[in-house]
Amino acid sequence: xxxxxxxxxxxxxxxxxxxxxxxxxxxxxxxxxxxxxxxxxxxxxxxxxxxxxxxxxxxxxxxxxxxxxxxxxxxxxxxxxxxxxxxxxxxxxxxxxxxxxxx
Length: 103
What we know:
Layout: H1 2-33, E1 38-41, E2 46-49, H2 51-56, H3 68-74, H4 77-94
Antiparallel strand pairs: 1-2
Protein backbone atom coordinates (compact mmCIF):
# COMPACT_ATOMS: atom_id res chain seq x y z
CA UNK A 1 0.00 0.00 0.00
CA UNK A 2 2.80 2.40 0.91
CA UNK A 3 4.42 1.87 -2.51
CA UNK A 4 1.13 2.71 -4.26
CA UNK A 5 0.83 5.95 -2.27
CA UNK A 6 4.40 6.86 -3.19
CA UNK A 7 3.76 6.05 -6.86
CA UNK A 8 0.56 8.12 -6.93
CA UNK A 9 2.27 11.03 -5.17
CA UNK A 10 5.02 11.03 -7.80
CA UNK A 11 2.41 10.95 -10.60
CA UNK A 12 0.57 13.89 -9.07
CA UNK A 13 3.80 15.86 -8.64
CA UNK A 14 4.67 15.31 -12.32
CA UNK A 15 1.17 16.36 -13.37
CA UNK A 16 1.41 19.47 -11.19
CA UNK A 17 4.79 20.43 -12.68
CA UNK A 18 3.43 19.90 -16.19
CA UNK A 19 0.42 22.10 -15.41
CA UNK A 20 2.64 24.86 -14.00
CA UNK A 21 4.83 24.73 -17.13
CA UNK A 22 1.72 25.02 -19.33
CA UNK A 23 0.44 27.98 -17.30
CA UNK A 24 3.82 29.71 -17.62
CA UNK A 25 3.84 29.11 -21.37
CA UNK A 26 0.33 30.48 -21.73
CA UNK A 27 1.19 33.59 -19.72
CA UNK A 28 4.28 34.21 -21.88
CA UNK A 29 2.31 33.73 -25.10
CA UNK A 30 -0.41 36.12 -23.89
CA UNK A 31 2.18 38.72 -22.96
CA UNK A 32 3.86 38.51 -26.39
CA UNK A 33 0.54 38.68 -28.25
CA UNK A 34 -0.96 41.22 -25.81
CA UNK A 35 -4.12 39.17 -25.38
CA UNK A 36 -5.65 37.89 -22.17
CA UNK A 37 -8.36 35.57 -20.97
CA UNK A 38 -11.01 35.77 -18.33
CA UNK A 39 -13.70 33.63 -16.79
CA UNK A 40 -16.95 34.52 -15.09
CA UNK A 41 -18.86 32.25 -12.73
CA UNK A 42 -22.48 33.36 -12.95
CA UNK A 43 -23.52 31.43 -9.86
CA UNK A 44 -21.05 33.24 -7.60
CA UNK A 45 -20.67 36.37 -9.77
CA UNK A 46 -16.90 35.99 -9.43
CA UNK A 47 -14.51 36.74 -12.26
CA UNK A 48 -10.98 35.59 -12.94
CA UNK A 49 -8.58 37.58 -15.14
CA UNK A 50 -5.24 36.44 -16.49
CA UNK A 51 -2.20 38.56 -15.71
CA UNK A 52 -2.29 39.98 -19.23
CA UNK A 53 -5.90 41.14 -18.80
CA UNK A 54 -4.76 43.21 -15.83
CA UNK A 55 -1.92 44.68 -17.92
CA UNK A 56 -4.20 45.43 -20.88
CA UNK A 57 -6.68 47.31 -18.69
CA UNK A 58 -3.95 48.84 -16.48
CA UNK A 59 -5.41 47.37 -13.30
CA UNK A 60 -3.67 46.16 -10.16
CA UNK A 61 -3.45 42.34 -10.31
CA UNK A 62 -3.39 42.22 -6.51
CA UNK A 63 -7.00 43.41 -6.51
CA UNK A 64 -10.02 41.35 -7.48
CA UNK A 65 -11.10 41.28 -11.11
CA UNK A 66 -13.81 43.85 -11.84
CA UNK A 67 -17.49 42.99 -11.83
CA UNK A 68 -18.99 41.75 -15.06
CA UNK A 69 -20.80 45.07 -15.45
CA UNK A 70 -17.56 47.00 -15.21
CA UNK A 71 -15.81 44.62 -17.60
CA UNK A 72 -18.59 45.05 -20.16
CA UNK A 73 -18.18 48.83 -19.91
CA UNK A 74 -14.73 48.27 -21.50
CA UNK A 75 -16.18 46.29 -24.41
CA UNK A 76 -16.83 48.23 -27.61
CA UNK A 77 -20.59 48.63 -28.23
CA UNK A 78 -20.45 46.83 -31.58
CA UNK A 79 -19.05 43.69 -29.95
CA UNK A 80 -20.97 43.90 -26.68
CA UNK A 81 -23.89 41.70 -27.78
CA UNK A 82 -21.57 39.02 -29.19
CA UNK A 83 -19.54 39.06 -25.99
CA UNK A 84 -22.61 38.70 -23.78
CA UNK A 85 -24.06 35.94 -25.97
CA UNK A 86 -20.87 33.91 -25.80
CA UNK A 87 -20.74 34.38 -22.02
CA UNK A 88 -24.31 33.15 -21.66
CA UNK A 89 -23.80 30.17 -23.96
CA UNK A 90 -20.69 29.13 -22.06
CA UNK A 91 -22.54 29.31 -18.74
CA UNK A 92 -25.59 27.46 -20.06
CA UNK A 93 -23.40 24.47 -20.77
CA UNK A 94 -21.88 24.75 -17.32
CA UNK A 95 -25.10 25.47 -15.40
CA UNK A 96 -28.09 24.19 -17.42
CA UNK A 97 -31.43 25.78 -16.62
CA UNK A 98 -29.91 28.86 -14.99
CA UNK A 99 -31.97 32.02 -15.46
CA UNK A 100 -29.61 34.90 -16.05
CA UNK A 101 -29.99 38.51 -15.04
CA UNK A 102 -26.95 40.55 -16.02
CA UNK A 103 -27.88 43.82 -14.36
